[in-house]
């Protein structure tokens, strides 16, 4: 017998909601055994809707206790109750519906709806969690004004929070108390939030440009409140930046952030009451790395920016998710670039895109930025929607320029403030504000797959002209065999033999523009661009700043790449040239056997190290070989062990070839005794120092191991300590265990540091990494119920340790399938996310394909498999 699984929802089936809820009053009575939720909905039929249209309210996983319409109790027969909601066949044009439901948040392990984390109650309603709290038209185009009363025991839950402003509070004489919150802004149900607990608060104020004072509050468990200073400073910087860059001010009198330890994603932008994974709030130098500090700032920014791009203007339906997520990721990227090194930020963002989104776009789950159908919406919070979505926004910015982009955003808010809209509405605002035709550009929303851009060139010394021939194509993806050409910006520079950018004058133009590079608009399958007054054959610097999310094919020679690596004025392309130089070599070694490091590459790395004008963070990126994930993407049939061996061999030869340089660089940076500050400069230097330490430990000498152990033991901050621990954990001897034991003993009471301890072991290069990971599943600190723990151990091993995960005996695959099955009964959303590495089975050799496929089939045969996992696994096997 086959089980019944949910059927897909299609974008084209969208219908306007027949009824709206103008306002509602919610009352929560929170208790240990059960929670009662009373809801009073003020409902109206929308214009033009047939009076016989039934009212449908979504609702799942709760008990309906009472239901009344305009004060009259409804009985079964008056309404229809099903496992996914309730319908009332005949309702008046305007009425009040009262609903009482009973929940058991203490048993909610899915972390959707109302649940308990540690001792506190909290909610997660995006995308469809509100329907686990009460019966409601839980869809983002129904926007309502909320008044929420929270009642709970005063001793255990002294802090009671919800969206908006607190308007009234009081005590009952049975030890309970209550607080009433009013949110003046109509919002979709996915932005509802509630928190109750014994929490500490860091309070501050912010004065907006127009002079309004806003109270800022960050809530955590008491022991963590001293780790919130960086989050608070980041919040203020975000608020200032949005005023300066977009003219957008905060709109309520209070902005609250609550950190919770059990959370499915990074954070949630609930109106006025953001809920965050502790990982993206808490940061102190001894427990958080420089990267953690950066991530806190980025995620605080992201959620704050949602207040306008997501909350004030929201999505009409979940197919439009990238409307808010792509735009908000882009805004966060701009913000982070402005706060630190723009070049390094761009490098890291492109690395995320290539390591996560490109494989997704080339696999069985490939979908457009605006998907056409889904079975479980939680499976579509993807790198495509978020990161490729952000690249699409960036392309508007590149095509229209900074001022044109801002005109488009201004018009978007002017037209749509307070509305639930579509990606087409955003595109129309961009087009109308700039008087341009963006109809072809809309293909970025509808066509999946990573386009390939093939560029060839010719130089004619007789006429001193240089021509770029550009052609584009896009591989087929599930359900889309033919693709039309995209409209995209190709930013180029032409570099002369001195490394200078040439003035760029296209044939037919009267003079060269006074810019180092220019944006070529690509619209056709094949297009040519002829530059005039080019005295000598230049080297093209193509796709500067990674101007479009495409795969570029240009036949660069190793000499070209070494030259651009030394001279390109565009920092992204300078880094890119070095990466290409190394990846060409590594792919050749993987295919034909490991050889000797070419002298020009060694020299290029050496010169980069010695380059005084470059900052430390950039150098650290430039001298690090491309990731194994990136290399894998370049191969027709992925050879994970071959890639790993080649990359290690390159690191080894660079370590030996430049041993003296690594040592002096390390010593110079390690002797810097200035106090720890998590700023760009300090972080960059630590990064470079730890890259140098990494090369030194490739020498595998006892003295280098001692050096690592010394840094590990003497480090005064988590960045240095963890970097050394990771290197020690890669070594085969006993020192690894000594260091890991010391680290655990010291940090076992800090859950976020224990996550790092799991992650370092999951990512270890040791040959016994899988055995250790399997053993760690039984460790008392590991919890399958905690998503951070799952990501740190199982996620990191399967996604970031390809050489061990893809062990030829298939044990890595079995381990993953076992855990997906175990987790599916607890938290299907997280279980489904874990399945990504198995879904890419077709990219491997036939033996691995067979092994991975068997595990996917085993998962599919599991009784009571969730829709979440079922969707991913069945699509993986089908496509
Ligand atoms: N909107 C959130 C963000 O991008 C994403 C999110 C947080 C989420 N928690 C979730 C999505 C749970 C789905 C389920 O910031
Ligand atoms: Zn978001």
Automatic annotation (TrEMBL):
Single GO MF descriptor: metallopeptidase activity
Residue stretches making up the Peptidase M1 alanyl aminopeptidase Ig-like fold domain: 449-554
GO terms under biological process: proteolysis
E.C. code: 3.4.11.2
Keyword flag Kinase: no
Domain Aminopeptidase N-like N-terminal: 94-191
Keyword Magnesium: no
InterPro entries in UniProt: Aminopeptidase_N-like_N (IPR045357), Aminopeptidase_N-like_N_sf (IPR042097), PepN_Ig-like_sf (IPR038438), Peptidase_M1 (IPR001930), Peptidase_M1_dom (IPR014782), Peptidase_M1_pepN (IPR012779), Peptidase_M1_pepN_C (IPR024601), Peptidase_M1_pepN_C_sf (IPR037144)
Pfam name, any one: DUF3458_C
Named cofactor requirement(s): Zn(2+)
Gene3D superfamilies referenced in this protein's UniProt entry, alphabetically: 2.60.40.1840, 3.30.2010.30, Neutral Protease Domain 2, Peptidase M1, alanyl aminopeptidase, C-terminal domain, tricorn interacting facor f3 domain
Domain Peptidase M1 membrane alanine aminopeptidase as annotated: residue spans: 231-441
Enzyme class: hydrolase
Record field: catalytic activity: Release of an N-terminal amino acid, Xaa-|-Yaa- from a peptide, amide or arylamide. Xaa is preferably Ala, but may be most amino acids including Pro (slow action). When a terminal hydrophobic residue is followed by a prolyl residue, the two may be released as an intact Xaa-Pro dipeptide
Keywords carried by this UniProt record: Aminopeptidase, Hydrolase, Metal-binding, Metalloprotease, Protease, Zinc
Origin: domain of life: Bacteria
Domain Peptidase M1 alanyl aminopeptidase C-terminal: start-end pairs: 559-878
Family of the protein in this entry: Belongs to the peptidase M1 family.
PANTHER family per UniProt: PUROMYCIN-SENSITIVE AMINOPEPTIDASE (PTHR46322:SF1)
Function recorded in the entry: Aminopeptidase N is involved in the degradation of intracellular peptides generated by protein breakdown during normal growth as well as in response to nutrient starvation.
Name of the featured protein: Aminopeptidase N
Organism: Alkalilimnicola ehrlichii
């Amino acid at each position: 017998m086959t089980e019944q699984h949910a059927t897909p929802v299609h974008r084209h089936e969208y219908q306007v909601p027949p009824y709206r809820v103008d306002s509602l009053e919610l009352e929560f009575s929170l208790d240990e055994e059960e929670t009662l939720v009373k809801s009073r909905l003020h409902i109206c039929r929308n214009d033009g809707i047939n009076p016989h249209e039934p009212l449908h309210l979504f609702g799942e996983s709760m008990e309906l206790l009472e239901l009344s319409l305009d004060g009259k109790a409804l009985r079964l027969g008056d309404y229809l109750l099903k496992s996914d909601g309730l319908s009332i066949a005949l309702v008046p044009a305007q009425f009040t519906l009262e609903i009482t439901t009973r929940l058991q948040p203490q048993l909610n392990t899915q972390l959707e709806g109302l649940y308990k984390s540690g001792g506190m109650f909290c909610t997660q309603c995006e995308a469809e969690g509100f329907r686990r709290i009460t019966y409601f038209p839980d869809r983002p185009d129904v926007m309502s004004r909320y008044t929420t009363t929270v009642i709970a025991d005063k001793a255990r839950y002294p802090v009671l929070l919800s969206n908006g402003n607190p308007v009234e509070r009081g005590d009952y004489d049975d030890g309970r108390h209550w607080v009433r919150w009013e949110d003046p802004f109509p919002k979709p149900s996915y932005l509802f939030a509630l928190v109750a607990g014994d929490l500490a608060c860091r309070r501050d104020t912010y004065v907006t440009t127009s002079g309004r004072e806003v109270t800022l509050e960050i809530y955590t468990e008491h022991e963590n409140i001293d780790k919130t200073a960086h989050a608070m400073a980041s919040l203020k910087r975000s608020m200032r930046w949005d005023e300066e860059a977009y003219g957008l001010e905060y709109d309520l009198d209070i902005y609250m952030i609550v950190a919770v330890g059990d959370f499915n994603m990074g954070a949630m932008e609930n109106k006025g009451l953001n809920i965050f994974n502790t990982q993206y709030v808490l940061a102190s130098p001894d427990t958080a790395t420089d990267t953690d500090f950066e991530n806190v700032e980025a995620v605080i920014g992201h959620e704050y920016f949602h207040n306008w791009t997501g909350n004030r203007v929201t999505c009409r339906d979940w197919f439009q998710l990238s409307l808010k997520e792509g735009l908000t990721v882009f805004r966060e990227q701009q913000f982070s670039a402005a706060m630190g090194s723009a070049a390094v930020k761009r490098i890291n963002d492109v690395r995320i895109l290539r390591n996560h989104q490109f494989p997704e776009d080339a696999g069985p789950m490939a979908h457009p930025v605006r998907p056409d159908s889904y079975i479980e919406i939680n499976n579509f919070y993807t790198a495509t929607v978020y990161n490729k979505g952000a690249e699409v926004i960036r392309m508007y910015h590149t095509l229209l320029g900074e001022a044109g982009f801002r005109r488009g955003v201004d018009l978007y808010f002017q037209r749509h403030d307070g509305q639930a809209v579509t990606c087409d509405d955003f595109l129309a605002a961009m087009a109308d504000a700039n008087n341009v035709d963006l109809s072809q550009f809309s293909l970025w929303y509808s066509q999946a797959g990573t386009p390939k851009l093939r560029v060839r060139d010719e130089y004619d010394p007789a006429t001193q002209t240089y021509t770029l021939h550009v052609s584009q194509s896009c591989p087929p993806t599930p359900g889309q065999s033919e693709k039309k050409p995209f409209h995209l910006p190709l930013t180029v520079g032409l570099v002369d033999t001195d490394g200078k950018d040439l003035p760029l004058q296209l044939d037919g133009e009267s003079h060269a523009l006074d810019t180092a590079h220019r944006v070529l608009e690509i619209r056709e399958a094949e297009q040519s661009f002829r530059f005039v007054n080019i005295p000598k054959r230049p080297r093209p610097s193509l796709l500067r700043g990674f101007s479009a999310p495409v795969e570029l094919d240009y036949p660069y020679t190793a000499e070209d790449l070494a030259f651009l690596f030394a001279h390109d004025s565009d920092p992204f392309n300078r880094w890119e040239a070095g990466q290409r130089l190394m990846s060409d070599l590594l792919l050749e070694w993987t295919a034909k056997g490991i050889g000797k490091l070419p002298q020009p590459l060694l020299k290029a790395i050496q010169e980069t190290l010695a380059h005084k004008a470059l900052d430390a963070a950039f150098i650290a990126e430039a001298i690090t070989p491309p990731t194994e994930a990136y290399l894998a993407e370049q191969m027709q049939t992925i050879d994970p062990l071959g890639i790993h061996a080649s990359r290690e061999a390159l690191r080894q030869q660079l370590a030996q070839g430049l041993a003296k340089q690594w040592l002096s660089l390390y010593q110079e940076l390690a002797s810097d005794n200035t106090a720890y500050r998590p700023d760009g400069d300090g972080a960059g230097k630590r990064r470079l120092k730890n890259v140098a330490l990494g090369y030194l430990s490739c020498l595998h000498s006892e003295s280098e191991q001692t050096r690592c152990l010394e840094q590990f033991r003497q480090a005064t901050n988590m960045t240095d300590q963890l970097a050394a621990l990771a290197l020690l954990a890669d070594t085969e001897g006993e020192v690894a265990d000594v260091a890991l034991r010391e680290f655990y003993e010291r940090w076992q009471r800090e859950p976020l540091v224990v996550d790092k301890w799991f992650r370092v072991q999951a990512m270890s290069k040791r040959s016994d990494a899988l055995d250790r990971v399997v053993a760690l599943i039984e460790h008392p600190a590991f919890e399958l119920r905690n998503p951070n723990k799952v990501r740190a151990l199982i996620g990191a091993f399967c996604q970031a340790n390809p050489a061990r995960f893809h062990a030829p005996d298939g044990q890595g695959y079995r381990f993953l399938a076992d855990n997906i099955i175990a987790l599916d009964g607890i938290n299907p959303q997280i279980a489904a996310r874990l399945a990504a590495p198995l879904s890419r089975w077709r990219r491997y050799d036939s033996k691995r394909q067979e092994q991975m496929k068997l595990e996917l089939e085993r998962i599919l045969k599991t009784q009571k498999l969730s829709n979440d996992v079922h969707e991913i696994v069945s699509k993986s096997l089908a496509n």
